[in-house]
Amino acid sequence: HTIKAGFEETGYKEDDAGGLSCAPPLGSLSFLGQWTGGEGWPGIAGTSPGNAFADYLLGYPASTSYGVNVQPYLLSREWDEYVTDTWKASSHLTISAGVRYEYQRPWTYRDHNATFFDIPNNKLILQENSSTPTLPRGADPGAFAAYPFETTKALGASLNYMKADTNNWAPRMGFAYRVTSDNRTVIRGGYGVYYAFNADWVGYRDIQFNAPWGATNNFSTQLPGQPVTPYLPDLTFANAFPKGLVGGEPANPSVTMMERNQINPASQQWNLTVER
Length: 276
Description:
By secondary structure, the protein is mainly beta. The protein has 3 helices and 14 strands. The strands form 4 sheets. The chain has a 6-stranded antiparallel beta sheet, with no helix packed on it.
């Protein structure tokens, strides 16, 4: 017999947004050519398409926006234990068998700046150790006031919310059998169960942009279609984000959701060969 056992521990962290799409924090401005097309003047609207680049040179955008980006800082850890035994049953037969146990702690947010979703209660879940939701640091006050929230504590969940997969047992077994004494023909076979590591890009990054995080404030000109009196540009380089023109929170925001039970994908592999 040859018996081996071991223990492995691996830590992971991710603090890069990884190309996530979100509104530029310094602002975004769009130009349509409506101002140089004379649409602010009675009787002229619609007679000329104007020029978007000319509107840009004048500093008169048609709409503006800016966003508050959330920097991901995700942490995870994995523990693996195994034991294996190789048994030379005879001069012709060798048997190997073992078992491996793998445990991955779900990815956690160091700053708890993510929002989960509770389908039965139709509420957004904040990672807070209080029963009453409070506006988190760095969150959007408008979104916090507009939507229903609850906390992980009120839901009876842990602060990190996600549940780990604790049933990752991976048996392994194999054999090698010499058919003839001249050692020229051997039959080999093996079977095993294998688990995959859940990466952070399966959804952990995206839920950081649920309300009240990753807010985008949009501003649009109130230029009427057919002005009866001259209408001057209400969005300018000097005042690109006036509070009076900010759009309200959407009634039905886009929400990214993840399954709370983080099951690790599993596969079974086996083989049987005859070699000569």
